[in-house]
Amino acid sequence: MIVADRIEHAYQAGDQQVPILHGISLRVTQGEMVAVMGPSGSGKSTLLYCLAGLVRPTGGSATLNGQNLSQLTDTQLAKLRRSELGFVFQSYNLMPTLSGFENVALPFRLGRRPVPTEKIREVLDTVGLGHRADALPSAMSGGEQQRVALARVLAQRPPIVFADEPTGALDTRTGVIVLDELVNLAHSDGHCVLTVTHDPSVAARCDRVLFLFNGRLAQELRTPTAEQVAGVMTALTAEVEAAEVSTGSTDVSTGSTDGGAR
Ligand SMILES: Nc1ncnc2c1ncn2[C@@H]1O[C@H](COP(=O)(O)OP(=O)(O)OP(=O)(O)O)[C@@H](O)[C@H]1O
Ligand SMILES: [Mg+2]
């Protein structure tokens, strides 16, 4: 289970603190797949980093499967992340010197667990990358790198999965395959999946959608349709644009607005 209790975060920019998250509370239970949506710059990735223990929030706390992250040392946090968490980064975070296969195998090696060669090949086949297993990330397209990052999580099947725009670089068909796998992880295996997406059709496959706006949770939809999701996103994006016009500036929390319904 993921529990966020009034999470706040501010980035340090020179000698100034730039507040990004303003007291986010949420809960994702086992067996649930939840989407986070919101305009670009609204703090979605930052929220995921705080919840996954990659960034220490400047206020509030995150609790994963009963362990309050603020009470863990860096070493304990790293251990928890290795054993219980999977993270698909927006920027994929692959090791450039390792092949696709070895990138998927890496968490097993780091955790000193046997590398399940057959399973890894199977997962790479599932995401359509069987033939690229030996290629280095530098020789892969963005979508192929993203699929390696997804295969890494799907091979481990950790109890808690965070995914930051996991289908952003995928074609429609591959996106559906990947999404099916993430939905299965939640609904069949009873794991906990929290995913950021800009795509209303991805959000519509989730049990709930949380909308982030200027670092605050603005709205929640349960079992939404893609049309409902697109409607809320259009309204939020219009609010961002109206705020930019009225202030005559693009402040950090209302940057560009490519988060509209695509
Ligand atoms: N390390 C950092 N230092 C300072 N500011 C940062 C840092 N990382 C992010 N920000 C700022 O925090 C805000 C939120 O960033 P974040 O990456 O969480 O947005 P997002 O909602 O994930 O956007 P997108 O949809 O474009 O991925 C942005 O204004 C960004 O410029
Ligand atoms: Mg982001």
Written account of the structure:
The structure is a single chain. Helix 3 (100-110) runs parallel beside helix 5 (142-156) and helix 4 crosses helix 5. The protein is an alpha/beta fold and 262 residues long. A 6-stranded mixed beta sheet has the order 6-7-8-3-9-10, sandwiched between helices. A 4-stranded antiparallel beta sheet has the order 2-1-4-5, covered by helices on one side. It has a single domain (2-249), classed as Rossmann fold, CATH 3.40.50. A hairpin with a 2-residue loop joins strand 4 and strand 5 (67-68). It has 8 helices and 10 strands. Bound molecules: adenosine-5'-triphosphate and magnesium ion. Adenosine-5'-triphosphate binds next to strand 1, strand 2 and helix 1.
What distinguishing features does this structure have?
single chain, about 260 residues, alpha/beta, Rossmann fold, 6-stranded mixed β-sheet, 4-stranded antiparallel β-sheet, 10 strands, about 35% helix, globular, disordered C terminus, binds adenosine-5'-triphosphate, binds magnesium ion, transport, ABC transporter ATP-binding protein
